Amino acid sequence: MNMKPILFNTDMVRAILGNRKTVTRRVVKPQHLRVLSSPYHLEHPETPDKVLLERLCEPPYRPGDILYVRETWYYESHMEDMSAGEPDLPSGAYSRRYIFKADCPDYPVNVGVGQHGWRPSIHMPREAARIFLRVTDVRVERLQDCGEGWCIDIEREGITTPQDPILYISDDDFHDALREAFKKVWDSTIKPADRDRSGWEANPWVWVITFERCEKPKGANHD
Fold this sequence. Notes:
By secondary structure, the protein is an alpha+beta fold. The protein contains seven helices and seven strands. The strands form two sheets. Strands 1-3-6-7-2 form a five-stranded mixed beta sheet, with helices on one face. Strands 4-5 form a two-stranded antiparallel sheet. It is globular and about 65 Å long. The relative contact order is 0.21.
């Protein structure tokens, strides 16, 4: 089974759970300047940049891959009396469970000795995963191509506007507001030091990864 992790912030996890997000974009590495100076391009200068990137750069995921979502989490473990009404259980049993910020943003996470509150998604173990995605398509495009012609591309990213669309004077106004919202979300995920290369205004090449929810695969907790 080819299963890989993928990170999403809390808002995007909620969008996936609400069936509003079916696409994500990730920056192509290396970017096109290195690809355009490759021996292949020198031999085939007529080949479009997009085709070169798809041929020469390794995508992070491929159609058919199963992804397990890493999200902000907390592992709660404490002693409690589990024996009431259950004579076979010892009185000092432990209660253990994973809690996710997307579900419980105000959960009173206990921070004591050796505890660290909410844990970042990058440190979430595979065994804690509850969301699984099947990759259905991977393609290359410029970041600003998203929603250039039709705002449904942005909506599939799980992006919404702060107001009801009916309040906008025209479809163009709604489209512009949605595109601006996506721009802000994208830049919020890019480190300030990297925005000149990977931010919205840099308009980098990106992998457009389309996915669908799927059931947890058998053996998902094992390498």
